[in-house]
Amino acid sequence: MIDNWETLRESCLECRKCGLCETRHNVVFGVGNPQAKVLFVGEGPGENEDLQGEPFVGRGGQLLDKFLAAVDLDRKKNIYIANIVKCRPPKNRDPLPEEQEACIGWLRNQFALLRPKIIVCLGRVAGMKMIKPDLKITKEHGIFFEKGGVLMMPTLHPAALLRNSNQKPAAFEDFLKLREKIDELGLDIAKE
Fold it and tell me: What's the CA angle centered on 145, arms 189 and 49, to 5 degrees?
């Protein structure tokens, strides 16, 4: 394990562990406060993310930012956002199991350095990888699961909400539950 945030980032940017490195523009390492107690995890970068090198910067990211702001969270101040895979799968397909396995070490190392108290899994793929393989995102979003002393909550992926806007209220409820859990745990994230 790499015990220095910048060294980890530099090593990740040079990664060639799977075929996704052949078609990427940028490795999307993550963004946010490296001392954050809340970690958001998506499945992988999309086209905008690949071009800009930052997670959740397209239309889905704009929606995510609105939800975050509504519960006093901010990607630059008090959370960290990363992905299961750091390079864009072609045509935004789900990352293959072998791609996830090749890349998950980077996320595990980020997790070890962050030591978050809460992980929010953005979408089905992240939820199945992080929480449980048989996760049913439409039925289990907004529910907190405890694993190894860390609370994990799946929620609907922002891109899915753009395709099916009638699910936005339910997803927003998940963010309200997150805010309640942050307050319940006494996490002082305002100062981060």
Answer: 60
Is there a contact between 171 and 67 (Cβ–Cβ < 8 Å)? yes
Using CA atoms, how far apart are residues 189 and 178, in angstroms rounded to an integer?
13
Contact 26, 105 (CB under 8 A): no
pLDDT, tens digit, 9 for 90 and up, residues 156-181: 999 999 999 999 999 999 999 999 99
Residue 39 bridge partners (DSSP): 80, 119
Q: So where are the chain's domains?
A: 5-185
Taken in order 18, 22, 23, 29, the sign of the CA dihedral is positive
Which contacts (CB < 8 Å, 24+ apart) does range 94-100 have? Answer: 94/43, 94/125, 95/20, 95/43, 95/44, 95/125, 98/18, 99/18, 99/19, 99/20, 100/129
Tokens 């539950």 belong to which residue? 177
DSSP 56: S
Q: Does the domain formed by 5-185 have CATH 3.30.420.100? A: no
3-state secondary structure of 119: strand
Tens-digit pLDDT profile for residues 72-107? 999 999 999 999 999 999 998 999 999 999 999 999
CB burial readout 128-151, b (16+ within 10 A) else e: bbbbeeebebeebbbeebeeeeeb
